[in-house]
Amino acid sequence: MKHRYSIFAESLETIRSHNKKGLSYTLGVDEYADMTWEEFSKNKLGAAQHCSATKKGNHKLKLTDDVVPLTIGGKQEL
């Protein structure tokens, strides 16, 4: 229990310190204030996606020498 309280106390100090700066947004206490960033990211952010849209090297780009004309208002610019 002391461990959770010390994490909460550290979060509260971070919140108060941030809010004293007078920035355009403020921080506040929520149900996750007694979790470390590591605990929060592991338990609440979910696993990384491993699908075809997120895999490196999955998309093949074919380069060509084709020239695409630029158009402005329907008229071709040279």
TrEMBL record:
The keyword Repeat does not apply. SMART domains: Inhibitor_I29 (SM00848). GO terms for molecular function: cysteine-type endopeptidase activity. Transmembrane segments: none annotated. Its EC number is 3.4.22.16. Residues 2-40 form the Cathepsin propeptide inhibitor domain. Keywords: Hydrolase. This is Cathepsin H. It comes from Helianthus annuus.
